[in-house]
Amino acid sequence: MERPDRQSSGGQVRDPGCRDDGNRIVVRSEAQGTPTGAFLGVAESDHAFRIMTIDIHDVQDGRVSRTYHVEDWSRAARQLRGAE
Asked: What pTM was estimated for this model as a whole?
């Protein structure tokens, strides 16, 4: 599995939103970068990507009991191909 954080320059993660309802914490953030070589099956180009990520943390007895994490890498690949 490719590690997205290893092949991009100027990578950045931004946290534009968080919601906490007591038993569940949802964090929406953005990841962006410009690959410095072939990445996600796309040849090197001058295209950058910006994608949304979502983390959902279930809390039980004051501790995180389960975490779900989603990143939209298919959208990043489309952006790198210049399709978006």
From this structure: 0.68
